[in-house]
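Standup notes
- HV: blocked on the assembly model, inputs below
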Amino acid sequence: MGLTHCSTGLGVMKEMFQVRVNSPNDLVVALGGNPNTGKSTVFNSLTGLNQHTGNWPGKTVTNARGKYTHKGDNFILVDLPGTYSLLANSAEEEVARNFICFGRPDATVIVTDATCLERNLYIVLQVIEITDNVVVCVNLLDEAEKKKIRVDLPRLSTLLGVPVIGTNARSGIGLKELKDVVYKVATNELKVNPVRICYDEVVEGAVRLLEPHIEEKVKNKLNSRWVALRLLEGEDTILDSLRDYLGVDIREDDAVSSALSEAKQYLRQKQVGKDELCDRLAAGIVKLAEDIREKTVVFENGQYKQWERKIDNILTSKVFGIPIMLALLGVVFWLTIEGANYPSQVLNTILFWVEDRLTDLCMWAGLPDWLRGAVVMGMYRTLAWVVSVMLPPMAIFFPLLTLLEDSGYLPRIAFNLDNFFKKVCAHGKQALTMCMGFGCNAAGVIACRIIDSPRERLIAAITNNFVPCNGRFPTLIALAVMFVAGSAGKYRSILASLFILGVIVSGVAITLFISSILSRTILRGLPSSFTLELPPYRKPQIGRIIIRSIHDRTLFVLARAMMVAAPAGLLIWLLANLQVGSTSILRHCALFLDPFARWIGLDGYILLAFILGFPANEIVIPVVIMSYTATGYMIELDSLEALRELLVANGWTWLTGVCAMLFCLNHFPCGTTMLTIYKETQSMKWSLVAFFVPVITGIVLCFVVAQAARLLGLMC
Amino acid sequence: MESLIPLHLLSPGSLGKVKKLTAEGKSRRRLLDLGLIYDTKVEALRRSLSGDPVAYEIRGAVIALRAEEASKVLVEWLGPGR
């Protein structure tokens, strides 16, 4: 921490926001703006891969920061969460607001969408009210060009009183100018003179009464006019962070509090209550934004939105909406499953080749057999298994899903399905987290961040496990082919596919059912406000999608999975190979679980395999095989036919198959997902709920199915 | 004065002008943040599959609102949209 920052009293705050300043000369730049403006493209283009992602302290709001150098100075770019406003109180808005106010960046860049400038100017003006050092970046100029929208950038800059740079971040246009201007603003080489937002006479009168008393208290630290407005508004969350920042509560200052009551008295005289004040404050900014837009934006083609509306009419129509959605998701699954086959095999071959070399190495080093077994056959083999079955499908699924996301289609799914979720008091965006869950439940849980309200977010996180992830799909498919479609001859694959579709639909139904139970019991509450932006459709950028989705989602999830898989592999090996009496611990455990497992249509080995499959669901079938063949390490059988024979020889019937599928769909989340749920909710209680809700659902379902089938004598 | 209708009853394809918000506190703030201040023009674009939510065009952006929220915005009917 450098002296220059400490001496102005900002050190503490920068510490609080964990911006690492390597040298006192590093300049901190905040990057804010609405969602869907290409903000992250700007961020990535400026910093390249020189960035690091984490969470804001104590919050599950993503915090990305990166570095770049310009004209010999180091810049630290802090990517703020995309928000529409800074004054409402979602976690994202609080983080963005607090950083701009109290993190005191040397410059704040607000990225805006040229095709929707008026809405974007709202946050620009809110920021200008807080700080002078603002640079506005008007992005997506190419999209505006296509829609024949012209933005008069010089005029915009004059009206706002801050520098305005037009960019097209996807093709890198304008970024150099942006860096130049940010440099000048951050180093105070360029003096800015931002527009002052004027409210109506009554509000201004109240501010005049209050502001002089505040000025001295917040001098050089905050904009006194802004503080006065917030005091009048009386929003506690904002005022509390203000207190934490200043170290004193200005509400308790005698001069301030008496001026505040005087100002409030004045407002009351003029018939301006709390809601009315709120309206007038918003109106001041909205009207100015409207005025500026009128002076700077020309729509040369009044019909520019027609084609977009036509696409929406089809994609969200009563007739085609759901079929198109199912077809698109179907294609994504098909590509994932088919496409992952070959790379999985290749990866498998490579990793097992490495295993042989590891074995050679252990032999050469003269390690004892048990140690070699534990490390190579236990830890390494489980790890290799998890990597080879998880990596390829995720590397295909996530880019495909990101493609749908970037094109603007995913919000339409939420729009189509919201009513189902509203009926169970949940949020339409839960549909999106479920889509993500098909790839990986851990990623699905992280995706729950897009849901604003904490209650609905928890419901989405707890129920995410009811959609089968990539790790459970192969198990479900194998079981469906072997036990449901077994005798259907040439219609086998069709029957199996239909059955899988049924499993997915039942997963969705269970999700809705459990969500409804949760919102009536432990997560009681009315649906909170729902606003969903349907952004303009955009041509996705393939290259960026691949890099981002592999970097942010695939590798992230894989890293967490590996952390869990290695120790679990060791444990499984020990259980299978340590003997008590003349049988392995694994067998003892299976025998112990057997009576209970039979009640729910399984057997002890299957139940144990699900428990041992906690690190990653992919290893459930291999563990079952390992137990039946008593080999002590995981093996794979060549064909489904051979597997079916082995299972039938060990007492499996169609009922066992169905119950195993049901339990596969409804059991505790895997280790990676549990870890993620804990990190996201920061709560042991909700993690436990997320663990037990699906297990209990699974046990009840399997029990009912098994007992009913036995009662009806359908055993064979 | 023209009679006011709640926004969720504005039929798709028609244009309305905001005259009053009946929401309070936080939810009022959210509506204002969307730009729904006095005299703002809003066009109802389309209903979702089962009738709710409805997508509106507000100040150049397309925003979907549930009936619960939209019913707290009272508008004056202006006629068919573009």
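- HV (later): unblocked. The interface with chain B takes residues 84-85, 87-89, 115-119, 122, 275, 278-279, 282-283, 286-287, 289-290, 302, 309, 312-313, 316, 318, 321-322, 415-420, 422, 428, 527, 529-536 of chain A (CB under 8 Å). Residues 1-14 of chain A have pLDDT under 50 and may be disordered.
- Next: hand off to the docking folks.
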